[in-house]
Amino acid sequence: MENLCILFVLLLWVGSGIAASHFTVNYIPGFQGPLPFELQTGYVGVDESEDVQLFYYFIKSQGNPKEDPLLLWLTGGPGCSALSGLLYEIGPITFEVVEYNGSLPTLVLNPHSWTQVASIIFVDMPVGTGFSYARTQLASHSTDLIQVRQADQFLRKWLMDHPEFLSNPVYIAGDSYSGITIPAITQKVSDGNEEGMDPPINVKGYIIGNGGADISFDANSKIPFAHGMGLISDELYESLKRSCGEEYVNIDPNNTVCLKHMQDFNEGLYGLFPNHILEPICGFASPKPFQILDKRSLSDNSHDILEIDPFFPTIGCRSYAYLLSYIWAGDNSVREALHIREGSIKQWQRCNYGIPYTSDIPSSIKYHLYLSKKGYRSLIYSGDHDMVVPFLGTQAWIRSLNYSILDDWRPWLVEGQVAGYTRTYSNRMTFATVKGAGHTAPEYKPEECLAMLKRWINQEPL
């Protein structure tokens, strides 16, 4: 009788949503028919009181899930939803980008999904991102280091709930701002294993795309990048180098000559789209789409709603596809299908830049050095038309690690065509550019990025 009572209490505890919970999702609104892959959604509570509830989407590998690696995927920001990485970058479904007509956006299969070769947990981190939420005001505040600790807790709890993946190789992966936290998370997992934390995680390395690392490298690389891409004149470039001493971030306020040249630089780049310098600048689909959601059910002429604000992206813009995610994720039927807890998140945002967050890892370089000494593998890739985190800065911090080159700079090919350039180092780090890609690379070059991942996962040369 006592055991039955304990079991009853445990069932009540799980049912209350305090413990980790997950659901299998076979159908989602907007996609015709049953999903041809295994999707699971759920929450994992982290920290001692579990006041932070992290939401995730898990998609089992469509290849060999018993042996394929497990990726923990973190989208950047900080504050950009994992759903953005799933739908626009590496997941098995994406939106059919057609002009909005008032109905729920249509989802179609992505033929270049990374789930062909890996199982992926897309996590809404840090708290306040996507559908993740805090149950107290104090718990809503996060930092880089808090996110690192919570990611380690999340992964260990998730694996306890999914013990069939304990033997799979694990990679911590993500892009953009997550380049700051991913090496620290990998080190945290590694240290936890050595300290005997349960369950042990079979971590093998990490993957970073278009990722930040250190502002002195990332931001200072924008001037030589702009010059190399023909965006500024030789004369301005030389004047900037001479007057600023190649330090373009922490400028002495008394250095008026450098400041004037920086003003000329910024004015010269006005009107360029930094995520991909060849694409047009478009309206940013955030946060005004909530107005559409309010009016969608009230107006028969929803097409006009999109045109009343000149800052809304138009159908020819890449960011128009982002707009569809607000409409889709804000729909009640979608939230029910995903098992979103009622009342937890009022307004979903693709990128919530308003979360209370403190950046307290100024540089990730020391973590890369630590992981290199431990022998972990790493794949670092950059879209070569990204001016948010230029590939020149990424190359510079990799050089600062001071590891010897094993396979020197060379092109890598997809379907007989140059897909980018690559170099490998003695610390088991592979660097690759993705030709023609922006911030972030899989969104622009999905076929090439899948080929890159497949070869790297299989420990083949790119």
Task: Describe the structure using short key phrases.
462 residues; alpha/beta; Rossmann fold; 2 domains; 35% helix; disordered N terminus
What is the element layout, followed by pairings?
Elements: H1 2-15, E1 21-25, E2 39-46, E3 52-59, E4 70-74, H2 82-90, E5 93-95, E6 107-109, E7 119-123, E8 133-134, E9 142-143, H3 144-161, E10 170-175, H4 178-194, E11 203-209, H5 215-218, H6 222-228, H7 234-244, H8 256-269, H9 289-296, H10 302-307, H11 319-329, H12 332-338, E12 357-358, H13 365-374, E13 377-383, H14 391-400, E14 405-414, E15 417-425, E16 429-434, H15 441-444, H16 446-457
Parallel strand pairs: 4-7, 4-10, 9-12, 10-11, 11-13, 13-16
Antiparallel strand pairs: 1-2, 2-3, 3-7, 3-8, 5-6, 14-15, 15-16
Helix pairs in contact: 3-4, 4-13, 7-8
Structural summary, described in words:
Helices cover about 35% and strands about 20% of the residues. The strands form three sheets. Strands 1, 2, 3, 4, 7, 8, 10, 11, 13, 14, 15 and 16 form a twelve-stranded mixed β-sheet that branches. Strands 5-6 form a two-stranded antiparallel ribbon. It starts with a helix and ends in a 5-residue tail after the last helix. It has helices at about 1-15, 80-90, 145-160, 180-195, 215-220, 220-230, 235-245, 255-270, 290-295, 300-305, 320-330, 330-340, 365-375, 390-400, 440-445, 445-455, and strands spanning about 20-25, 40-45, 50-60, 70-75, 95, 105-110, 120-125, 135, 140-145, 170-175, 205-210, 355-360, 375-385, 405-415, 415-425, 430-435. It has about 450 residues and is α/β, with parallel strands linked by helices. The protein has two domains: about 20-215 and about 285-460, Alpha/Beta hydrolase fold, catalytic domain (Rossmann fold), CATH 3.40.50; about 230-270.
